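Morning!

This is the sequence you dropped in the shared folder:
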Amino acid sequence: MRLLSGLRAWTVQRASALYMLGFLAWLAAALLAAPPEGYAQWRAMVARPAASAAFALFFAALLAHAWVGVRDVVLDYVHGTVLRATVLALAAGALLAAGAWVALALAALHSGGAAA
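The structure's back. Tokens below.
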């Protein structure tokens, strides 16, 4: 049984898209209401626990959404088991690296270190 086949993949795509839409609407409203004037204000906005959790969840949803999309395209258009596995492994590695970078940036923000 595939990990994300059929209904599961569809559900992940739709749920992640809905969360990202809601998050972007919230972010746009927050930026219109009180636009940050500099790096310190941006950092303070993202450093709030609720905002950090929302940003982390946004990036998790973005990475899950991207994985399902890339996986479906690769399964449809990349032929040959070895080539398909290689492309999927590279895509997964890139998405995991992006997720790790976001996690480290948010962790550095809360530990007082310099956010990358």
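Headline: The helical segments are 7-33, 39-47, 49-77, 81-111.

More detail when I'm at my desk.
O.
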